[in-house]
Design goal:
The structure holds two protein chains of two kinds. Chain A has helices spanning 4-12, 24-32, 121-124, 142-147, 175-190, 211-220, 260-272, 289-294, 321-337, and strands spanning 38-41, 47-51, 57-63, 68-74, 79-85, 97-102, 105-111, 135-136, 155-158, 163-165, 169-172, 197-203, 224-232, 251-254, 278-281, 301-309, 317-320. By secondary structure, chain A is an alpha+beta fold. Chain A has two domains: 4-66 and 174-337, Zn peptidases (Aminopeptidase, 3-Layer(aba) Sandwich), CATH 3.40.630.10; 68-158, Peptidase M42, domain 2 (Elongation Factor Tu (Ef-tu), domain 3, Beta Barrel). Chain A is globular, with a radius of gyration of 21 Å. By secondary structure, chain B is of the alpha+beta class. Chain B is 25% helix and 28% strand. Chain B has an eight-stranded mixed sheet with strand order 1-2-12-3-13-16-14-15, sandwiched between helices. A six-stranded antiparallel sheet of chain B has the order 5-4-9-6-7-8. The radius of gyration of chain B is 21 Å and the shape is globular. Classes of the chains: A alpha+beta, B alpha+beta. The interface between A and B is medium-sized, with 29 and 32 residues.
């Protein structure tokens, strides 16, 4: 069904926003190069892989950057103070391992906490915030930290923790958005006859403001743009606000950010190939690359194709391999069946 | 005097942001077609009506989208849960009638239900409702029945609103934001006499969710000058001190100086004032700290566009009962006509 080895390699390759060159970029190029006609890297680091065809011109984007942390201070006692890159919730950091990318290579650190024995009952009710987060890399002072190759500006990620759960499910940090990046790459590899002129983009800096997709869509000037990104699946504590479920298939949004004709076409393709498809209401411009693609140049007919996950932006995001598989199938058939069409909503 | 029949069609047609195709787009295309040389609709749904000329290229924009609701869940007992498209205050939803749009120009009714005061505790009665308490009752007994009636996740809902006269000079309606400006746009095209300007009248989409239609249409048009027409706040109501009223009904069209999205080109602001004075068009100033307009997107297009804006003062905006004064509307049309007729005299 899915290629677990390639999937894990893509999920674990380093690449905090703006630092995609640290690992993931080469993995993407290596995985795509035999399956497309042309690959280039632009000045922001987007990987743009072109699979030539006639029309319509379509851009598929999955972002390859990850949320992470950046060192902004080193204590004299050797602790690292950090700031978030992208939407990191400090509550998820306590008692976790982090993977640090230094000038001398990779090493690990841990985020400590004050033991409950030493905290007052009222303090235990307080959530961790950035002031209480300190990274311990096993150094006893600043000089030692610096000798390890850690500086102001050094970036780090959640430590890898790929775990199979049950038959089809798995948990790991960075399903956002590496699981969709994996799905996009598998789509490109599986693609057979197509009329469409297809650009697969592994975009940079999505987590800090959809920046990679902005410049890539400007350069490509597509008629249709589809962002592949994760979305929220039902979970405890969601107050009934989430309608999408894990294992029930890929998800496509409806709302102002979505061209209704592209959405209807995708729905037809899903029906034809008996692929389950879930719907997600998006009353606002989505938090995906489709947001910026839609307002590129004179306007682009956009849609979002999502894999549902639980616990987004944590170290234990969960997805279902059936959904991944169905997403690849849907993307493949959609691209193969795509013909020039009327895109006026 | 406004053209009441035309205005009624323009304000009452549905067209929530991203869903302008549900009704209002056709009404506006129809209204423009005898007054321009060419009309096209782009991939986001903007209407671009072109009146050709060999003079300066001018873009006039008024947004045709309105705020509304989207169905996010259908509960098993048939109630609809909703989320806002654009800036909606949940307090404006209680005890209202709604139109639930199950197709193009096709709707069923719904009502905004709430818990009766009789069974609320005194402290609960003091709280404004928030989105968790809002639900729409369409008369369905079950989720299945709601679906049979044509409701889905993503279905669009608007207030059940209509245009009425209010007193001697005033009008009340749903969606004056920004259909009164779309009306102004159409009337400007209709009344225009001598001009060599190359004019693009644009009824934009998705203003209420981030000036998105104006951005892409400006990119395509690449105008020399941009003008946005929108409503502004008239808070000339009991309890608001004069310095916070922004504008007042019946005191003329409002020439925009700035809002949160744009600082209008000062030369254009002064020139519009001179035109208003020269032709005895009543005007007031618009300085709005909250809220933006399509001018915000237009003036940042490509290498920059000198941009101005006129506003129609409106009370109670973003509700089902927005109120404008038709003398202000007429003054706005008159000023925009003069702007286009004299555009060659504008020197930046």
């Amino acid at each position: 069904m899915v290629d677990w080895e390639l999937m894990q390699k893509i999920i674990e390759a380093p690449g905090v926003s703006g630092h995609e060159f640290m690992g993931i970029r080469d993995v993407v190029i290596e995985a795509l190069k035999d399956y497309v006609d042309e690959i280039k890297i632009d000045k922001l680091g987007n990987v743009i892989a072109h699979k030539k065809g006639k029309a319509p011109k379509i851009m598929i984007a999955a972002h390859m950057d990850k949320i992470g942390l950046m060192v902004n201070h080193i204590d004299k006692d050797g602790y690292l103070r950090v700031v978030p890159i992208g939407g990191v919730d400090p509550r998820t950091l306590v008692a976790q391992r982090v993977r640090i990318f230094t000038e001398n290579g990779e090493l690990y650190g841990v985020v400590g906490h004050v033991p409950p024995h030493l905290t007052k009952p009222e303090d235990r009710k307080k959530a961790a915030d950035w002031d209480t987060i300190a990274i311990d890399v096993g150094a006893s002072n600043r000089e030692e930290v610096e000798k390890m190759g850690i500086k102001i500006g050094t970036v780090m990620e959640f430590a890898p923790a790929f775990t199979r759960l049950g038959e089809n499910r798995f948990s790991t940090p960075y399903l956002d958005d590496r699981i969709c990046l994996y799905a996009m790459i598998e789509t490109a590899r599986a693609l057979e006859n197509h009329e469409a002129d297809i650009y697969f983009v592994a975009s940079v800096q999505e987590e800090v403001g959809l920046r990679g997709a902005r410049v890539a869509s400007y350069a490509i000037d597509p008629e249709i743009g589809i962002a592949m990104d994760v979305t929220f699946a039902k979970q405890p504590g969601d107050k009934g606000k989430i309608v999408v479920e894990l294992g029930k298939g890929p998800v496509m949004d409806v709302g102002p950010n979505i061209n209704p004709k592209v959405r209807a076409f995708a729905e037809e393709v899903a029906k034809k190939y008996e692929i389950p498809l879930q719907v997600e209401p998006s009353p606002r411009p989505t938090g995906t690359d489709a947001n910026i693609m839609q307002i590129n140049r004179e306007g682009v007919a956009t849609a979002v194709l999502s894999i549902p996950i639980r616990y987004m932006h944590s170290q234990v995001e969960i997805a279902d391999a059936k959904d991944v598989d169905n997403t690849i199938k849907l993307a493949k058939h959609l691209l193969e069946e795509l013909k020039p069409m009327d895109l006026i909503p | 005097m406004v053209d009441y029949e035309l205005l009624k069609k323009i304000v009452e047609a549905p067209g929530v942001s991203g869903y302008e195709f549900l009704g209002v787009r056709d009404v506006i295309v129809e209204a423009f077609k005898d007054y321009v040389d060419e009309i096209k609709v782009d991939k986001l749904g903007n209407i671009i009506a072109h009146k050709k000329g060999d003079g300066p290229k001018v873009m006039l924009a008024a947004h045709m989208d309105q705020i509304g609701l989207m169905v996010t869940t259908i509960e098993k007992n048939g109630f609809l849960r909703v989320a806002p498209i654009g800036g909606i205050d949940p307090r404006t939803l209680i005890a209202q009638r709604f139109k639930v749009w199950i197709g193009k120009d096709k709707f069923i009714y719904g009502v905004g239900g709430s818990v009766p005061p009789h069974i609320q505790k005194p402290e609960e009665r003091k709280k404004a409702p928030d989105w968790d308490q809002i639900f729409i009752d369409i008369g369905a007994e079950s989720k299945e029945e709601a679906e049979e009636m044509g409701v889905k996740i993503g279905t669009i809902i608007t207030w059940d609103g209509r245009l009425e006269r209010l007193g001697k000079h005033r009008l009340v309606s749903i969606a004056f934001d920004d259909r009164i400006a779309v009306y102004t746009l159409v009337e400007t095209a209709r009344k225009l006499q001598e001009t060599n300007a190359d004019i693009y009248f644009v009824a934009t989409v998705q203003e209420e969710v981030g000036l998105r239609g104006a951005r892409v249409s400006a990119f395509g048009i690449e105008p020399d000058y941009g003008f946005a027409i929108d409503v502004t706040i008239a808070a000339d109501v009991p309890g608001t001190p004069e310095h916070k009223q922004v504008t007042q009904l019946g005191k003329g069209t409002a020439i925009k100086i700035m809002d949160r999205s744009v600082i209008c080109h000062p030369t254009i602001v002064r020139w519009m004032e001179e035109l208003a004075k020269k032709y005895n068009i009543p005007y007031q100033w618009d300085i709005l700290l909250g809220g933006g307009t399509d001018a915000g997107a237009i003036h940042l297009n490509k290498e920059g566009v000198p941009t101005g804006a006129v506003s129609v003062p409106a009370r109670y905006i973003h509700s089902n009962t927005e109120v404008v004064d038709e003398r202000d509307v007429d003054a706005g049309v008159e000023l925009m006509v003069k702007v286009l007729e004299h555009i060659n005299e504008l020197k930046i």
